[in-house]
Design a protein that fits this description.
Structural class: alpha/beta
Distance between the termini: 36 Å
Largest sheet: 8 strands, mixed
Shape: globular
Radius of gyration: 27 Å
Oligomer: single chain
């Protein structure tokens, strides 16, 4: 493909010289990002969006062609088709089963049973697709799904659990032809597998997954009660405190030589944020961020004096954005101020004002068993802290929180568009009202996942905090393009990777000041490439294995130094990065082995 011809076809031929000067060929073009386009001189947002859409179309076309070739390889007479190379990776596998399907089939007419199975499969498939899982196979009343293949995300275990809960709920809403409510049970397991092996012959030939993980998921499904989700110990490790869980004790499962420790998923966890859920109460030592903390404190001082400030904090995953915000909150804990925390979610990008709803529910102190009247009382009490006209704001925010108000307030008589405008104004008024009492620190984390209405709220808030004692901190990843840089009171701050010296200092903090062997320290610093999360996880993995011997004031090697294993907690993140970097490459078995193997 000629790049110049392609650009001219888009009406963007003026960028041909810049693309050629930077050696952008057809292969490199596929991987260009918005940041790359800015570097190439594409300053127009409209032109960038047009280019990114065209690049996405090229990727999709190439992927379709690749898939077609893979799905139907040519077969010559007298010779077997060449199988594509399989690859090894960490995978989360889900098995879903329709409870009592045999008894149901005995009671129903075959056509009625077929309709039940179609409805059941549609409900389960919808739940899996919502969280971007891959339905691998239908097996009568069973559904097999993969999370982490053919495309990986950094949170596959969480996605699988959410999909499992959604599938159970969706099936529960169905009924059979004779009126009985249907029920499903789900088993989920995470572990190393080889994917892409071709088995069978002729029309029965199919791509499969090899390893213990699918078998474990199937066994866990059989021990799940109707309407429940049971997960493996490794899946439980990866989801941290995102969900409330019940341990089921050590279980002996057929085909497994040692007992396993499964967990039942009860529901959503109580952690305030993803960061707290995944990292717990123990915070990683903060290293190499003195300048950034100093800058945030400087903006805080300016905000306290009534000069409202906005700081845009950007950095790649694992670089320490959330950790830096918690360090700032720690510095301010003895100062009088009001902290407002908003957390965006990758699974609620189409839920209007999702981070705001979460904040209001936490701030008002809603309990799971609160009746609607009690919740409305709590909301009014919260609004009274910032607003002298509670009766004007309460119906709007009650509607946002889906609270009934008929007995206390008349129905809102306005168009949906006007209601949204009034709601956004009420939310900003609440922040500014709190700021009249004491300074406000408003945190909006992971805005690259924000829904469009939350971004509209930020537009309004960024504009109106000027002249108010408010510091707004907004964190996001580099792919997000903030629209607020035109304001004089907005400052951008990019977190860079740690230097080798800073990485070594972080390792020393994690080891309690005990020196590691030089060879071990060198491998950790080199392999983690300055990303604090990687430094933390790899160091902890090394310290928890039998690789080192504690000599009191230092560690010594207990034997020959093997290649370091990648921690389970990092495998999904690294696989997602590899898949993003090379979406069109079918990695062979020689790909970096991430499933419990070495770097």
């Amino acid at each position: 493909m000629d790049i110049g011809t392609w650009l001219c076809g888009l009406g963007l031929g003026q960028y041909e010289q810049a693309f050629r000067e930077n050696d952008i060929d057809a292969e490199v073009l596929m991987d260009l990002t918005a940041e790359d386009l800015v570097g190439l001189g594409v300053v127009s947002i409209g032109h960038r969006r047009k280019l990114l859409a065209a690049i996405a179309a090229l990727r999709a076309g190439s992927m379709s062609a690749t898939t077609a070739v893979t799905a139907a390889p040519s077969v010559t007479s007298g010779s077997a088709a060449l199988a594509p190379e399989a690859e090894r990776r960490q995978l989360t596998v889900m098995f879903v089963d329709l409870v009592d399907s045999t008894a149901l089939a005995a009671r129903l007419d075959p056509e009625e049973m077929a309709q039940v199975l179609r409805s059941y499969q549609s409900a389960v498939t919808g739940a899996i697709a919502r969280f971007e899982g891959h339905v691998a196979k239908y097996m009568g009343d069973g559904v097999l799904a993969y999370f982490g293949y053919p495309r990986a995300h950094e949170d596959e275990a969480e996605r699988a659990v959410r999909a499992g809960l959604a599938a159970v709920a969706a099936v529960h809403s169905l009924a059979s032809a004779d009126g009985d409510t249907l029920a499903a049970r789900v088993g989920i397991a995470t572990g190393p597998v080889v994917v892409g092996e071709l088995i069978g012959e002729g029309t029965a030939r199919e791509e499969t997954v090899v390893g213990d993980t699918p078998n474990l998921a199937a066994r866990l499904q059989t021990m799940a009660a109707p309407g429940t989700v049971v997960i493996s110990a490794r899946t439980r490790e990866l989801i941290g405190g995102l969900f409330e869980l019940t341990e089921l004790g050590m279980q002996i499962l057929k085909g497994f030589p040692v007992p396993v420790r499964p967990w039942r998923v009860v529901g959503e966890g109580a952690a305030e944020s993803r960061f707290e859920a995944l990292h717990g109460a123990g915070l990683t030592p903060l290293v190499g961020r003195d300048h950034e903390i100093g800058l945030l404190l400087e903006h805080w001082e300016r905000a306290k004096e009534g000069d409202g400030q906005v700081v845009l904090l950007t950095g790649e995953p694992g670089i320490g954005k959330s950790r830096l915000l918690r360090a700032l909150r720690g510095r301010l804990e003895n100062e009088p101020h009001t902290a407002l925390s908003h957390y965006c979610s990758p699974h609620h990008q189409t839920s209007p004002l999702y981070p705001v709803i979460g904040h209001l529910e936490r701030a008002a102190g809603f309990a799971a068993d609160d009746p609607a009247v009690t919740r409305l009382d709590k909301l009014e009490a919260l609004l009274a802290l910032s607003n002298d006209h509670v009766a004007e704001a309460a119906p709007l925010l009650a509607a946002l929180l889906s609270l009934e108000t008929d007995a206390r307030y008349p129905p809102l008589d306005m168009s949906p568009h006007r209601q949204k405008e009034r709601t956004l104004e009420a939310l900003v008024d609440q922040v500014l009202g709190l700021a009249t009492r004491r300074p406000v620190l408003a945190l909006f984390e992971d805005v690259h996942w924000a829904d469009p209405t939350s971004l509209e709220l930020l537009d309004l808030l960024v504009d109106r905090v000027q002249g108010a004692p408010v510091l707004v901190l907004i964190t996001f990843r580099p792919e997000f393009e903030p629209p607020w840089m035109r304001y004089a009171h907005v400052t951008a701050l990019t977190l860079s990777r740690l230097s080798r010296r800073q990485g070594a200092a972080m390792v020393a903090r994690l080891s309690g000041g005990k020196a590691l062997p030089a060879a071990v320290l060198g491998q950790i610093v080199a392999k983690t490439d300055g990303v604090p999360l990687f430094v933390e996880e790899l160091t902890r993995t090394v310290l928890e294995t039998d690789l080192l011997r504690d000599e009191g004031d230092h560690y010594a090697l207990a034997g020959p130094l093997p290649p370091m294993a990648i921690p389970t907690t990092l495998q999904e993140s690294l696989l997602a990065r590899l898949d993003r970097l090379a979406p069109l490459v079918r990695w062979p078995r020689s790909r970096p082995r991430l499933a419990g193997n070495s770097l």
